[in-house]
Every structure is written in structure tokens, then in C-alpha cells.
Amino acid sequence: MPFVNIIRHAPFIFFVNTTTNYKSSFVIIPPRLGLGRRICSCSGSLPSAPKSNVPLSPSQQTINGGKVTELKKKVELLGIQGHDSCLPGRYNYLFCPKCRGGKSMGRTLSLHIIEKGDFAMWRCFQTDCGWAGQVFADSSKIIMNGTVLEPIGDELIAYFAERRISKATLQRNAVMQRSGDQAVIAFTYRRNGVIVGCKYRTLEKKFWQEKGTKKWLYGIDDIKEAATVVVVEGEIDKLAVEEAGVHNCVSVPCGAPQTVFAKELPTLEKDIAYQYLWNSKEYLDKVSCIILATDVDDPGNALAEELARRLGKERCWRVEWPKKDDFSCFKDANEVLKCLGPEALKEVIENAKPYQEYM
Ligand SMILES: [Zn+2]
């Protein structure tokens, strides 16, 4: 089942939105199920869903029980714990794995498994958290703050195959797609297996990010114990580098600047554009060699310089992309993979030069 493939490498997947205000954004149960209403109670007394007076047949009870078990498994994999005693048809207040209840440290997460066991949904009522979502017993779809995500389909698999990126690599990185008629790639950002953000990309190269999520490097779990780290400029380049057998690679989340910022480095709090580096500090501090494999153009060089001045030039190396013809070079990791193959890409990375020499 696709969902199992996605979660196999991600024992605790969940989605976050750190700014959602529950008063203005809430989960609506589909009206066709007759339960269209808000979950908004934050009081200690838990509302119960309406109960049916018609007793269920033993076979129906077995079917529903199986679905509830399936849902509980999925919810567990999303990091929500303490659901063992949760009964379908009730609102259960649990600890939120995202915010742990904030300052109150209370049970701020409302989990509701609908009585027939078709789906479970949750929302955290801690004002700064607001993590919400839905999982389905019979489907691998996930709803993240209103956006339906599903396993990547044939059209996008073909799109990546043309870029020599395999289905196995897509699944290992939990790449999904937005449900709907337009093909939209959903790069899920994970930390400790938990999905902490999502970046969307259309085939026409239009990007946007899940609003309000803290920014991280893409693929950060792959550099947990790494002494050498490769940094690329986009998610597809990260996947390309993986095809070359190099897993200790991360991508920056928001591309390259046009030019190098002329002034002194801002303080940590004011360094908004590079907050993802500071968020990832505990990982990067352990690294002795950072190979900058950004694009060959001016923004790519500017990004390499901005990264190097923050990470320390003495431990940075720079990839030299091979020549395409007398006038130009291959521009990035994916282009090298596509045109020259995985071995050539690996070689280019291995032959990076010390950053200060490169300059
Ligand atoms: Zn929360």
C-alpha cells in the first residue's frame, strides 16, 4: 500500500502549521457524513458525537473494528500517542506531539475517530500550534491544514523518470502530490521522520511553501551523523545527488539570492533569509566538510558565498560543474545526472575544491 511505503522510512510523520489560529481555521467533517460542524471545544469536558440507537450487526462491528485499528496504526505513525483508550465517536484530548501543549503542557490535541471508522481527524487547540489533519482507513491520502496530499502518481513519476530520478528515491524522500487535476509535487520536509513542512512545485516551476512552518534544510535526517555534507540549491538536485549514491545531501528550502548581501552578517535573530541554517545548527556544527553544490550561475555563486560566510569558509568546498561545450557548463546536479549519469555526478562531487581556492 503506498501509504506504508511512504511511512516505512518515516516512523513519525506529521504535518505542522505553527501559526494557524484554530478560531479561523478548523476541520470540517464532510457534510455527506452528516457531521458538518466545528471542533472548537477547549474545555475539560469532552463533547461526545451523537450516538446511533440502531445496534450494529456483528459483521458490521468487525468491519468497523478493523478500520478503527487501521486508523489507530496510522495515527500512531503520525506521532500521536495515548490513543489506545480512544473510542470512536468521541472527542479525545491527548498530548500534541508537535507542541506538547505549549506553556500549559496540557492535553491540547483533540482526536476524533468517526464512529464508523472511516477516518480520524485531529486539531491542536494550543494557539501557537494549530496542527491539524486527517487520515483515512481505506486511503493513503492525508489532509494537511486543508490541502489533500496523496502518493505520487504516474504523471509525476514519469516527470521524475525523465530527470533520471527513480520511484524508489521519491518514496524514500516521501515525495507526494497535491490531490486534484493539476499536477503539483509536494516535497515533504522531515525531521526525525516527522514531516515539519511542505513545499509545492508545479511542472511550470511555480513554487510555494506551507505557510507559517519553520524553515529547515530539505533532507536533514540524511545528515544526522554525517561528517561531510553536500548542499544543493533545490529539492530535485537533492534527489539527483541521491541517485548518484550520495545520501548525505541537503537542499536549501528557498533557492538562491540574486547577489551577495554587501554588509556584515546580521545577528542570528535578524538573519531571516537564512533562518533554516540556524534551525539546523545542531546538525551542521558536527560537520567537518561542507561541499557547496549550488548552481553555476550568479545566484548560485551568491548562495554559495552566503552559506560559506555563515558556515565558515575553512570547512567549505565548492563543486565545479563540468563543461557542456566551449561556452557553458552544466548548471546543476540534476543536469549532470541527466546528461552524464550518476557516476559522473558522484565524481564531480568528490572532486570539489576547497572554497577559498575556488574563489
Ligand atoms: Zn500542538
From TrEMBL:
Cited InterPro entries: TOPRIM_DnaG/twinkle, TOPRIM_dom, Twinkle-like
CDD domains xref list: TOPRIM_primases
Residue ranges occupied by any Toprim domain in the UniProt entry: 227-316
Protein name: Toprim domain-containing protein, putative isoform 1
Gene Ontology molecular function, alphabetical: 5'-3' DNA helicase activity; DNA helicase activity; single-stranded DNA binding
Pfam families in alphabetical order: Toprim_4
